[in-house]
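hey so u asked for the seq, here:
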Amino acid sequence: MDNVDARPGPPSGAQWTIGAAGHQAVVVEVGGGLRTYRADGFDYVDGYAEHELCVGSAGQILAPWPNRIRDGRYTFGGDTRQLHLSEPSRHTAIHGLTCWLPWQLVSKTADEVVLGCRLVPQPGYPWSLVLRTRWRVGAAGLQVTHQVTNASAEPAPFGIGAHPYLRLPATSVDETVVHLPAESRLLVDNRLLPIGAATLAGGEYDFGTPRQIGAMLLDTAFGELKRDTGGGSAVTLSTPDGSTSVTVWADPAFNWWQLFSGDTLAAPRHRRSVAVEPMTCPPDAFRSGRDLITLEPAQTWQASWGICPAIQDSGVGSHSGAGSH
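ran it, structure tokens below
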């Protein structure tokens, strides 16, 4: 016990600050997630203070699955598994298993930090994964690269997502203009679990043409994404006059976006910002198999996403610059 540090510390553990070209981010030990991100003095990520516990999954990395699994129960490789119900009110297992694990520092420079975590086998998920995340800031914004290796002797089911909340200067959620080029959304039951899909084409959830959120309540997964020339996709939030925007981009490995307007969060976070969540697979993918990744033994998977703010005529960031890796 002499080697255990029993001194009080931040709920999110060690804090690592990186900065370059007017951009700064703080990444934390607990969950290996993003606590803050600012550019040119404005906090584009609605994170949490150093003395606070992470609320609403703010900035967390969601692995080995994003979103929910119905009843925490699924079958893979002929065996049925039962996960802990981490969202008991809806009888689901939500957002994976790494959100509250300690991540270790692998390397750090002024503008980049790399963290690693080993997910050990456990009831409901008897596979071992080695996860590594590289966080980097620069003139093009924040870039995040995930590497995940299956350290088990058997194939493992896998998915990943991220949960940043975004906001814009002097702009409410209702006033926020969203651009999300997609062709469909998932329909959900009262437990927010998928029961079908609907095409968007001109409907109330169609953000293919940028428009304000207004009074809409969003906790919605969007699929059949319209890709850019590199195969990636992006969601852009803008102020009503278009003077400021922030884009969350993701490479081709991410097939889904979840938008969450924060309506179920308690004050002061209630409807204060919009979670823009890149996901490799949709909710309940461990049961449906839709876009579920199977990691073979010793296989390493890698993908990137990022956040790119832009102020009109400022030259700060660009989607194409942020997405290069």
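The domain at 15-323 is CATH 2.70.98.10 (Beta-galactosidase; Chain A, domain 5). The chain has one domain: 15-323.
lmk if thats what u needed
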